[in-house]
Specification:
- The protein is mainly beta.
- It has 10 helices and 51 strands.
- Helix 5 links the parallel strand 7 and strand 8.
- Helix 1 packs parallel to helix 2 and helix 4 runs parallel beside helix 5.
- The longest helix has 18 residues.
Amino acid sequence: TWGLTRLEDQSPSWVRDIRFVVITGQDRQLLQDLAGRVDPRQTLLYIPGWRRHGYDRMYPDYTANDDFSAFVTDAHALGFRVMPHVNYFGCDPKSPEYAQFEPYQVRNPETHEKEWWLWERADPVIKFAYINPAHKPWRDLFVTRMKELVDRYKVDALHLDQTLCIYNDDNGLMDGMTMLQGNVALHRELRAALPQVALSGEGLDEVTMRYEAFAQRHAWGLDFINGTWDRKTLAMAHPVSSYLFLNFTQPYGYLGMTSPTKDQLYAAWRENYKHWGVIPTLSSYGALPAEPPGFLAQVLDEAAAFTQHRLSPDLEGDWPEDVFFPYRGADGATAAYRDTSAGTVFTVSDGQGEREVSRTVSGVRELSMPGSIPGWRCYDGERIFGLDPERWYAYSPQPRDLSVFHVSGLPEGFTVSRVAVTETAATVEVTRPDDALAWIADLLPEATSGSIPDAGPAFTQTGPLDSSPDGASFTAMGRDIHAHPPWKGQGSGRAYATMEIDVPALQGAVWFRAQVAMDSAAIGPEKTDGVLFRVAAQAEGQDPVAAEVLNATADRQPLDLDLTALAGKRVRLTLSVDPGPRRSPSFDWARWYRPRIEVERSATGVVALAHPPPYRVAVTGAGELLVGEVAGTVTRFTLNLPGAVILLRQEPAAIALPLDLTQQPFALSFVSEAGEQLNSPQYAGGAPAEATVGGVTRRSLGTHPPDHGTTCADYVLRLPELPAQFQCFVGLRDGSKSEGCGFRVTVNGQTVAYRKMLPGQWEAMSADLSAWAGQPILLSLVTDSEGGFDFDWAAWGEPRLVALP
């Protein structure tokens, strides 16, 4: 019907050659690094922040910044193709063009209000109008601006952002066209004006793919803004859309796709994209390390394979049950992303046989293969073990190094949350993965959910609450639950979800466990006054049991309920949220983190450490001195688990109080959110410095966590016999735009204080250390990115130990 042109026949002809996309800034060193690893002629550089006004500001002004022209010249000299980011209908209200086009701004057909893009997390806030492209003068202006852009900077392609946004405009027809027809007309006119320039758009659909050689794919089941995902939804991705469209349009990674340094969030994107034949896509804004770690090594290896063999989707090839997506190379090679019992493997088969390009391990607790997981310290000669089945790990063919310090034995069912070796101590924190008997988020589809407003009729339905007339909600996001009390109409009220659960009769206590908090964006003046989180359980013929927490912060607080008395019975479990003390539902974005039913099991087990560093003292989290059983290069410790073993290289001398920690030596270590020790991660570090928070300057320990990880500042001390207290102020340095950073104090791996901080003021923090009086300890100040690490300028103000009164 539409007379589509296949990729091999499209103009410009180079579009058929692209096998790698890099979302990047204008770093010249990155160009050199990439050129040494992949074929630049098959690589498309997508540049979002190239304009003088910055990303998403002052549309439709498309004047470049001072560095862009030279960057394009350098990229072209190496053979790269360059694609800047533009917006097909964006018009900033501060721009001189807005007055002309304001009458043609898209309006909502229900509210009749103007449609805007509003991004309040930026400073200053980003806001621009949506102009209906059916209005011909807008298309004329846009096409003219794009021609000027191409003529001046010689770019190869244009990414037209938000082309998937096609509204039923309340303004009605413009120039005899709907907005959909205007969208197609704009694409058609751009192609006619710039036949040697390729077009890209946001989203893959049957409207815009007619004229777009490239299309960004969103990942369903992934909230990239808040860094959460639902594994079950990610796995539901089906290749039917790719089967229909990939002969004409090539999908690549969405702009919001995160960097490989973000570990689990990046792995969630990969989990979705492997179903769709998405071109390998790297988001990187700086030079590449000499030895790329983990997932960064994987995407570079895959890009090298795609460019070496010129791999293309093999849509008519075989799709065995274990194949997520097949490819065929111009040289006759075949390749595929395949499912295995231990995750996903990408293989290439050519005249030299089959070789493994990348492997992502998931869904298992151990792996019997000869390679390694970079940074993972739990292994022996036969296995890598202690893995969390809920996480993804980047596997490397590099053999495990059995000569360095590592955990060579763990009791079954346990893992490590931290293994760190510094010049002063070695720390092994042993924990049990969330081994839930039931995940509450998984039960929502069969739950009875509803709302009880303060005024007006109650509402009830089966399944997640996402369409209540009073605005209440109770929905799953991965293992978490997002909820909001009623807010439409008069007053507020309660939102709830009720489900039937069989509480098993097991050895050990049975608990409902969760952490609850407000979304970080809900915190601030004139925003939320908190939510009352409540969980209640009742079995037939028994009195109900309940627990509740009022939280007005983004600090995650435990909400636990002992269900042991209900073991062996069918239980009616209800989770609910009510507004805070003012009964105001404004910004009441409530979050239940990983709510679950679990059995609390403790155990005594042996932790074996191979090649432990020379140590004088070994202690547990409770401060008990340990004596290890030595056999060759392995020392075995018997621990109460979960727990920790701390090896101190020197017997510390007793300290005198008060003690200023900014004047004490400390050792730094870095750990990813998957528990892997990191080597010199980007921007992470710590040092004593003056820090100003809320206009108040204090002598501080300044720290910065790695992306999706923690920075630990470890102090080896012997406490005096008298009871001591840790005291400090915590905050984020003025100018920070962080969305939240965690401050945690641990003693021998045991948490004694925690606070999540947003930019603003100093807050006091303290911890009672009297339980360790007279004992050697490892005191750790842990800075946790709790997601992305942007602007996590953490400051531990005036950290000190003082005598308790």
